[in-house]
Amino acid sequence: MIENSNYWRDTHTPLYSFIFTLPLFLIYEVGVFAISASDLPLLRNGADVLMRQILEVFGVFGVYGFGGSFLIGFLVAFLRQKKKLMSTAIRGEYLLTMLFESIGWAILLTIIMIWIPTFLMNGKDGRLMQQIVLAIGAGIYEEFIFRVVLILGMTSVLGFIFQWGEVGKKTGAVILAAILFSAFHFVGAYGESPSLNMFLIRMAAGIVLGGIYVLRGFGIAAYTHTIYDLFVLVKFTTSV
Predict the structure, then answer these.
(1) What is the model's pLDDT at position 61?
(2) Is the pTM of this model over 0.85?
């Protein structure tokens, strides 16, 4: 039996997020390579491409530049967090519970999107395997950029500039990150056509995912995003 206090505390740490998201990371990297080795830059998730371009400014090149940096970053978090936990053991029942919790959050997000109503992924574009791989990539890379990096960064900035309390600066950071998350989908060569309606819908989804990240950590947010995309993909591919 899992003690609630230990489960909620421990699974919110970078240690559990690293272990929990590692399978998604490996599936995405292997899946992208298996789809088409010659078209890797075009097939990779948009947020992944964005981060690789940013890293190139600092001299980190290559198709797997961000993937390697991402993995190294979580290894560092893994080692640092491991020292802080009372036990170094990873509890398998916690990881399984995190999976079911993520499915629950994904169902909630799906209900919200149905109620709006719309979906934020077009499963009819491209091949099925490509869509599955990109859905996994969205869960990892978009959550890492727009939740981990932006929310953490903006929380610090808002706290420094406005001297807001913990709730105020985190709420502001979630909203600002959600705005950028939504706007990201309308820029670049493969961006969608500008639409205020879709912008607000994606912003709402970004706020929900941001809230999940703040409350439950990166791992749960990444799986929630991925599972939601897979839900939508199944809906589109099975519809007549």
Answers:
(1) 45
(2) no
